[in-house]
Design a protein that fits this description.
Helix content: 10-25%
Order of helices and strands: EHHEHEEHEEEEEEEE
Shape: globular
Strand order of the largest sheet: 3-4-12-11-7-6-5
Number of helices: 4
CATH class of the largest domain: Mainly Beta
CATH topology of the largest domain: Rieske Iron-sulfur Protein
CATH superfamily of the largest domain: Rieske [2Fe-2S] iron-sulphur domain
Radius of gyration: 22 Å
Bound molecules: FE2/S2 (inorganic) cluster
Structural class: alpha+beta
Strand content: 35-45%
CATH architecture of the largest domain: 3-layer Sandwich
Distance between the termini: 38 Å
Number of strands: 12
Oligomer: single chain
Length: 161
Amino acid sequence: MKKINRRKFLNDVCPAIAISMVGASFLESCSKGGDDENLDVSLDTDSSPESSGYTVEDNVVEIDLNHPAFASLNSDQWMNFTAQQILILKISDSSYRAFTNSCPHQGVRNAWSYDQSESRFVCSRHGNSYPSDCTTLGTNGYVLECYNAVLAGQKLQITKP
Ligand code: FES
């Protein structure tokens, strides 16, 4: 945890945020002096591949499949990788598919499930479903867009358009 100076923190934050978010009572505490103790503020600045399990370069997302963040690919065979707006499907240990997580119906990104028996993604917002073969039309007449996904060792490289 990084320590920052309380006065500097309040001076930096108060003018921009306090008025719109917390009102006059907080402004009073901003103007009080003599309290320069340090605050513990958690600043998550670590976006290294070791921390997140993936890197992004241009339109290519490279995922470390051994990273705990992607463990659900082994347990559930799929995941909604919301940080990069990608659905990932594990076909086998050597084959993966990737899709946009934007539902072709109205663009909802967070209502997905995967129906193993039908091999299709289901968007629960309005009940449309989309085959995971990258070609067959979904129930609303659209294909769930596929991305190129290439496996190199334990790294999955997904190229977004
Ligand atoms: S937004 Fe997904 S089914 Fe309507």
